[in-house]
Amino acid sequence: MMKKTILILLFLILAMSVASAGTVVIDPTSPSTEDTLNAFVEGEESTSFDFYWIKDGATYKSSTGSSSSLGSSVTDAGEIWTVSVWVPESAWYDSFEYGSASVTIEGDVPTFDYGNVVIDPSEPCDEDNLTGYVEGYEDTTFDFYWMRDGSVYLSETDNESVLDDSYTAVDDTWILSVWVPESAWYDSFEIGSASVTIDSCDDVVIEEDETYAPAVTDIFFSVDEGEFVNVDVVYTNNFMTYFFYSSMTDLMESQTIYVYDSDSLEDELRYEFGLPLADLIGEWQTVVGDAGVYETSMRVMDTDSNISIGNITITVNEEEVEIENICPVVSAEDITVYEGELAVADYIVSDADGDILITSFSEPMENNGQWQTEEGDAGVYEVTITVTDNECEITDTFLVTVLAEDVEVENTCPVVSVEDITVYEGELAVADYTVSDADGDILITSFSEPMENNGLWQTEEGDAGVYEVTITVTDNECEIIDTFLVIVLAEEVVDDNQAPELDDIEDQYVEEGETVEVEASASDADGDDLSYTFEGVDEADVNDNQFTWTTEEGDAGEYIVFVTVSDGELSDSTYFRIFVSEADDDGDDDGDDDGDNDGDDDGNDADGSNYEGTDLSVSEVLVMNANNLYSAYDVSGLSLEISGAYFVENGYLETDSGDNEIKVYIEMLNKNSFDAQNLDISFIIAGEECFASFSDLDRNEKGYAVYTVEIPEGLETGKYGLEVSIENEDLDYSEVINLEITSLGDLVEYNTVSDDPVVKTFWDNLMDFLKSIF
Fold first, then answer.
1. Candidates 3.40.50.150, 1.10.10.10, 2.60.40.10, 1.10.1510.10; correct CATH number of 329-403?
2. pTM of the model as a whole
């Protein structure tokens, strides 16, 4: 760590020395419109920098190298160009500005002697056309804008402009604003303006002094819940500036209101905002729950009490919740066709997220899931179907069987599988069965009494008993019959025995030569006699629930001891750690008193330690199939009578109705600016350990993997701790997950007549019980 810190300081000192070494230069320093601009850092001509060419606050070009150029086709006379030079970002420091330089493009910008804007007639009535021009420049082309009440009604580009009397009405006030048109050398600018008030041609009205109400833009904008709203107000006495921004705020989101007043100064105006904005400053701190659309306004009043209102529409968006992607699901069935027929894939795809799915097929099928077979194509083809939502890819395979035209297909009988069911009086009994037909024929299924032909029976009080029901399945050529039992119970049968519960044991910290003494304690609701076992330290003395170990020189290290309590049938397990430090060492380098040298009381450090902080983490460790785990039972040399879903493999009793492998899901996140490598994983259960590794993680990458851990054979029924450890140079993480594991040996009973072992399921035992009472 000290080496990394020194190295970082050296790079920072080097970066600071580079930042003060040279000067940013633009050549030539007084360019014309025909010159190419070249930028570099004087004294650092061989060093690479980031160059940004900027005009009027906008970046027009960026490049990385020892120099940068800007062509003359981009520049124009009178423009000011700035080059900003930055030191590029590295693994040791962020990018920062080195310096900047500016030049003005020289050229002939024409000057203009302002004339007098005239509206003729100067005192018009409602039947007069209005003619506008610039006195002294009657032959020069200008941009004319006729405006009333803050809106432009007519715009023309000519040496004069005429406003027809159809536009005007008595008491209208019309303003004519005249602008010099934009050219390649200069922007458009206002030359002047004039105004007239329309009188009635029937009456002569004596004109009185009049003031005008301010003009205010309407605005709309959107924010997310929790963001701060601050509406700005910008005043202008230039109508064309106001007109430009008024047009922009009609089309684009803006948090700035523009105010125009031709006869008031900015400090003569008063602004007031409506709720939810603060009264005078236009601010609002949104919070979660504020999502919605808010219609409010800003009122502007001048010293003559002329009032205008600008409408404000605020849309507060609901805070987005990131949804984790769920992989699509695909199911494909085998298909059979004759030569010359069109083979069409029989498949179903779905996606819980509603994502767009892309489906493709391997040869001989096209990607649309079809294949036009021909004579000579007879055979069996394995086809792979691939489905992706652009994040997760799923594949499945199916067979395409192509038969020669003269091959007669022999009917295959349907297959039925049915399980016994148990319900209580008053519950609905639902048959638990599956039927299938390899030919894809339509199947007809029926049941004997007391069930209906739909496989349902609504039981009632007094129906307690065992009923044998027949299920019949036919494809109209072949009929298959099977039977199952419907067991109706009057009241719930409860297993009296309950598993003991073992209390947690604290970790132990000693020095070499000291003695570790631990007394395990447990409770049992049935009051059964309990026995204890301790595994992990062979040298320890165990007396019932007492664990004693006198350490010696050389024993320094960390030990895990697994403790199990049993009532003869059921058990519970836990574990504790023993930290042994050397006799001449205080056992704690970090100032903590826990002895694990990681500064964390539980030794569980889920974040990596590096120069950027703890940014490597374990997001989740999850056992995916924790509800149905079993341990295989050694039945070598025994002659078993097996029923149900049980079978013998390699001398061990196994079952299809459970898992003897633990599926562990691990997810990790690397938020560092460098890759996470050499991630080693270990799993320990019942004293047996296995190892794996996690794929390297790129910087700012999340990854996950699923691991399979075999359950040791011959375990007793009870709780077992699965310890998961993940380590590399920046990470030391461990976690213990308690799992319920059933021993299949609990299901083996011996026939009292023949002494032959018999595997009995729960339902076999229940049937024996029912036969004894009916």
1. 2.60.40.10
2. 0.26
